[in-house]
Design a protein that fits this description.
Layout: H1 2-10, E1 19-20, E2 26-27, H2 35-43, E3 54-59, E4 62-67, E5 70-75, E6 80-86, E7 88-89, E8 98-102, E9 105-109, E10 115-121, E11 123-124, E12 132-136, E13 139-143, E14 149-155, E15 157-158, E16 165-170, E17 173-178, E18 183-189, E19 191-196, E20 199-204, E21 207-211, E22 217-223, E23 235-240, E24 243-248, E25 253-259, E26 261-262, E27 270-273, E28 281-284, E29 290-292, E30 306-310, E31 313-317, E32 323-329, E33 331-332, E34 340-344, E35 347-351, E36 357-363, E37 365-366, E38 374-378, E39 381-385
Length: 396
């Protein structure tokens, strides 16, 4: 209880919404009549705590936060960039605009919270290359920042533009279009995977191949497992006849399909399973060299280390399989920004790469560090801490 009270007293709660002006400075909104902000002020007039119902990682200086069932954005300086008054809000700013949901519809606001595009769409994506994908009357199309219709509403599903093309679905099949709405690849695919490193997975009759940013089929349909893996660090997992291996962007097999299971590459290495024994895993590099590491439960390598489980306790190993941090934790997650989340007795804390507990295990939940801060939960509420454990204070 003492710890909980200290946490609450250290965190500052907003008495009114703050917003960002065009010059990037933080200012109070001119409209002080917001019923939501008034409610917050009344409920907290004797309080100075920042306590949210939920908080997410920081992305490009912003974190999506929830308060009383409404969503907004806080920045890394402790200013409420967008007050908590929306039913949903994007966790990032795309080309100067934020898509948000109000009264069941999506629209776009700027950094000051001004409505730029009205709340009338059934769904919306962020702007990319000057265009956003939105849904109206059950169909998807594309608009610009002036809300001009660039590509008509005629698709069953659609994604945002990247490198001048976007994937869309029509008559049950997927294809790619350009910004003029011209068909780049025919509507013949059963599914399209996410684009990564200039290539996208496409599926026909449960066979996966890859196409480039121009819609050309550059890697044939050689992967015959329902699970799709995007390219990561120049290679992708594929499955042939029930065995897993890896190909490069030319479609060349660089590690033979001989594994029972395999993970994507991360930090220069990957996990691969050599038999049906759940603990029979190895660490492989891109030459196929193997290091025995018999851990049935493991996480991807990050910053040179991976958390693994042995006898129901977690520790960390390096890429040679050497135990760097002993198996003392109930759970452990990958390192991010030099610190890793750990759990002891159902409480979350953080350790550094020497195994030193930097932030004690005192939180009900925690997220990994991002842009210098981690979202943490104490009791039923969320706040933010820096890498010393100091709370992020909201500026008045």
């Amino acid at each position: 209880m003492k710890l909980y009270l200290i946490f609450l007293l250290c965190l500052v709660f907003p008495e009114s919404g703050l917003s960002q002006n065009a010059g990037g400075m933080i200012s109070r909104p001119k409209d002080k009549s917001s019923t939501h902000n008034t409610k917050i002020k009344k409920e907290n007039k004797n309080s100075n705590k920042v306590i949210f119902d939920f908080a997410s990682d920081f992305v490009d200086g912003l974190s999506k936060v929830e308060l009383n069932g409404k969503w907004g954005l806080i920045d890394t300086t402790g200013c409420m960039a967008i007050s908590c008054k929306y039913e949903d809000v994007s966790s990032y700013i795309s080309e100067g605009l934020i898509h948000a949901k109000l009264k069941g519809k999506w629209g776009y606001i700027n950094k000051k919270g001004d409505v730029v595009i009205p709340f009338k769409y059934e769904s919306a994506t962020g702007f990319s290359e000057g265009i956003a994908c939105v849904k109206l009357n059950g169909k998807y199309g594309y608009i610009n920042k002036n809300e001009d219709i660039i590509i008509p509403f005629k698709y069953e599903s659609a994604d945002g533009f990247s490198e001048n093309i976007a994937s869309v679905k029509q008559n049950g099949k997927y294809g790619y279009i350009n910004k003029n709405g011209d068909v780049v690849t025919p509507f013949k695919y059963d599914a399209i995977g996410c684009r990564s490193e200039g290539l996208s997975g496409v599926r026909v009759n449960w066979q996966w191949g890859y196409i480039d940013d121009y819609g050309r089929e550059v890697i044939p349909f050689i992967h015959n497992d329902p699970t799709y893996y995007a390219f990561n660090e120049g290679v992708a997992c594929i499955c042939r006849n029930g065995k897993w291996g890896y190909i490069n962007k030319k479609g060349e097999v660089v590690i033979p399909c001989k594994y029972v299971n395999a993970d994507s590459f991360s930090d220069g290495v990957a996990w691969a399973q050599i038999s049906h024994d759940n603990s029979d895993w190895v660490i492989i590099d891109k030459t196929g060299r193997e290091v025995i590491a018999k851990y049935g439960i493991r996480n991807p390598f990050s910053e040179g280390l991976a958390s693994v489980c042995s006898k129901n306790k977690y520790g960390f190993i390096d890429k040679t399989g050497h135990v760097v941090i002993p198996f003392t934790y109930d759970d452990a997650r990958p390192f991010q920004e030099g610190l890793a989340r750990i759990i002891i007795n159902h409480k979350y804390g953080f350790v550094d790469k020497t195994g030193r507990v930097v932030i004690p295990c005192q939180y009900e939940n925690a997220k990994s560090f991002s842009e210098g801060f981690a979202a943490v939960k104490l009791g039923s509420k969320w706040g933010f801490i820096d890498k010393t454990g100091k709370p992020l204070l909201l500026k008045n």
